[in-house]
Amino acid sequence: MTDLTRLTAAELAAGIHSREVSAVEVAQAHLDRIAEVDGDAGRGVHAFLHVAADAALASAALVDEAIGAGSAPASPLAGVPLALKDVFTTIDMPTTAGSKILEGWRPPYDATVTARLRAAGITILGKTNMDEFAMGSSTEHSAYGVTRNPWDGTRVPGGSGGGSASALAAFEAPLSVGTDTGGSIRQPAAFTGTVGVKPTYGGVSRYGLIACASSLDQGGPCARTVLDAALLHEVLAGYDPLDSTSIDAAVPAVVEAARAGASGDLAGLKVGVVRELGGEGYQPGVRASFDAALQLLEKLGAEIVEVSCPHFEYGLAAYYLILPSEVSSNLARFDAMRYGLRVQVADTGSAEEVMAATREAGFGAEVKRRIMLGTYALSSGYYDAYYGQAQKVRTLISRDFAAAFERADVLVSPTAPTTAFPIGDKVDDPLAMYLNDLATIPTNLAGTAAMSVPSGLARDQHGGVELPVGLQIMAPALGEAVMYRVGAAFEAVRDAEQDGPLIRRVREWS
Predict the structure, then answer these.
(1) Which pTM value belongs to this model?
(2) 37 lies in some domain
(3) Distance, CA of 183 to CA of 128 (rounded, Å)
(4) CA–CA separation, 435 vs 134, rounded Å?
(5) Catalytic: which of 22, 59, 75, 85?
(6) Cβ atoms within 10 Å of 425's Cβ, excluding its own
(7) What is the pLDDT of residues 376-393, one digit of tens each?
């Protein structure tokens, strides 16, 4: 009998819609897989913070009932299971954002992303683990324990969306949704051998997405294949009047582009290699995998050109001023007065004392660090010197992208400078942790689109198991179609050259 957890979302949808298999059977198979391998932070993958088994089976049953009655499926993904990052509000499940300050909170409304998933008939299995308030690159900053990388349980899965990526790599779900503020979809995808897409800023609604940095946050699809990501992208994307930053424009035809790209023809396309996103600081195996990826793109007919984005080298510094500043503002709402955690103090304690005690107990060390950095950067006498200057760098980075896209249809780089590193290796070294986002941050600052596609396997400097490496493909704003075309073409030739999808080589969790 076919293992349903090993099938792609497209394959599962075809089987459900043709009634070869029921949505309930598919949901149950994935719930069984979660029970088998997820465990807790000490023994299992720990991708999930909350599993909604009864709700998932009830949702799947509705899909089966509708198809049995002769109704057309609600969407091309109706009945397919999905894991949702625990930063999107869900009226029927807790939403914690990985923080003790929201432990047990049940929102009074669904995020637009959640609502669109439900309307599409997608089965939401539960909520996935993440770095607290999406601040981190390893999922070690979750208040609820670390998530493990299914390729090697001693390694991190990346962050902040490590739970969403590990759920895919451990075959607990064929689809997931993440958020990307500086690489939180793409870097975990690279570390786990999966596909992760950061859409154009405003392309997917942020309504009901608990804010980290509002001008950078963007929800997006995660999957094990480019086509599956495209199918989910079309469900998530589109204008939302509830989000003032939502783009009122047609959703790019990403599914059509992915299907066209799978033919493997990139003739006439120019692929730009960003000079500043490589070299020093990049693990040799990562660099070798990237060079091999360029050869495959040339084999498909693409013309490889070098482009320079000189202000990218300032992106990391600008980002770590802009992001903490917005964090300082956004997290001020967690004041113990309206919802979430409230730490009681003496009867004579003032509101300010309750607030201070609650924030001390409820926020983790990394969140506190960024709040303090942001508060300092926004303070009187320092705003222009820090936050104001960072915004000027952001403008220069956007101009670099504009100039580069005049010379190339897409830009490429390694997604992350290294493969997945050991748990605990960088958790006490913030600067080393921040450097993981070196290649992904510029896209968030500019608001353009990017994706990570598995490009191969490499051993790190410590040797050991082979670990996944990601190829980052960047496109202009609302240029997702060409990005998906390139990603699907690369995926097809990579699988042919490497005897099948890389994800098949992930070790069986035990």
Answers:
(1) 0.97
(2) yes
(3) 17
(4) 16
(5) 85
(6) 17
(7) 999 888 888 899 999 999
